[in-house]
Design a protein that fits this description.
30% helix, alpha/beta, two-stranded antiparallel sheet, 9 helices, Arginase, Chain A, eight-stranded parallel beta sheet, 318 residues
Length: 318
């Protein structure tokens, strides 16, 4: 019987070894990155307005991602009849940006520096948050790149301008993004219920080019019609707040909001996004594992990211 490589080398089960993202190689020297995809942790949660704990998100997502570390030669999807993330796709884990406790600006600057290093190396930066304020330095790092359109999956609009002097908290990132010259517009999906953003913020968002859809509006339109609202052929930056999902499947977050997405609703949208344009950057934020003793929130985050990365690379011909 043919071996097919299954009995060669180490078995390397998920609970063995180092818990890097997908058990991929560590890249500690950011000046020598050589990868298609670079994972960066941003364990910062000083921007939260309610429950903290997302500083432990990157570690939890990495640990959960080891479950999906089998098959470095690729993952066959029988529905799509495609192999995703074959061995030719190079993924590295950069570790975490250095976080300086109580210092938002220094911590954000360190996150921005990491994203810039990934972009300079020609890698797709994938940032594991942390609270949603980490998106601010992530988007800022693209200021010397080609323009990007922001696609946000979230329960909250995050379009607060300034509140009691705070401009860089987790209620501000989409406002800060919309102000950037290299951001051409925003598609904000899943926004529902009581939000951190007041009515004026919604009005400002629409004036600044946002297309805002709730979960119920998404379901009424259908995933293909929603994807069709996103400008085609553009470079996308996708930011996924885990509270965009319903807390029945993602309770491990600081600001849960019922009425959220199911797994396949988001997965199908991301697959269409990967085909519609070029995904230039990703962050996934607000996983606070201590609020979910089952660990399912971290598994959801890891699974959605690995599938999305598979879709992106497949669309690029890998």
């Amino acid at each position: 019987m043919a071996d097919h490589g299954y009995e060669s080398g180490r078995l390397n089960l998920p609970f063995v070894g180092f818990a890097t993202f997908g058990k991929r190689p560590i890249a500690e020297d950011w000046d020598k990155l050589d990868a298609d995809i670079a994972i960066l942790g941003a364990p910062f949660d000083f921007g939260t307005q309610y429950r903290s704990g997302a500083r432990f998100g990157p570690r939890a997502i990495r640990e959960a991602s080891t479950l999906f570390s089998f098959g470095h030669a690729g993952a066959y999807d029988h529905e799509d009849e495609a192999v995703y993330l074959p061995g030719s796709v190079r993924i590295v884990d950069m570790g975490d940006a250095d976080i300086v406790h109580t210092d938002t600006e220094k911590s954000h600057a360190n996150i921005e520096a990491g994203v810039r290093k990934a972009l300079a190396a020609g890698s797709l930066p994938v940032v594991l948050g942390g609270d949603h304020s980490v998106n601010i330095p992530c988007v800022r790092a693209f200021d010397d790149q080609e323009p990007i359109h922001i696609i946000q999956i979230d329960a909250h609009l995050d379009f607060v301008d300034v509140r009691h002097g705070v401009r860089h908290g987790h209620g501000n990132p989409m406002r800060r993004a919309a102000e950037q010259d290299h951001v051409t517009g925003l598609t904000q999906i899943g926004i529902r219920n009581v939000s951190s953003t007041a009515r004026e913020g919604y009005e400002d968002a629409r004036k600044m080019g946002s297309d805002i859809l709730s979960v119920r509006q998404f379901r009424k339109l259908g995933v293909e019609a929603v994807a069709d609202r996103i400008p085609a052929g553009k470079r996308y930056y996708v930011t996924i707040d885990i509270d965009g999902f319903d807390p029945s499947i993602a309770p491990g977050t600081g600001t849960p909001s019922h009425g959220g997405f199911t797994y396949y609703e988001v997965l199908e949208l991301l697959q269409l996004v990967a085909r519609r344009g070029d995904v230039a950057g990703i962050d996934l934020v607000e996983v606070a594992p201590d609020y979910d003793q089952t660990g399912s929130t971290a598994f959801l985050a890891a699974q959605i990211l690995l599938n999305f990365l598979g879709f992106i690379m497949h669309a690029r011909g890998h």
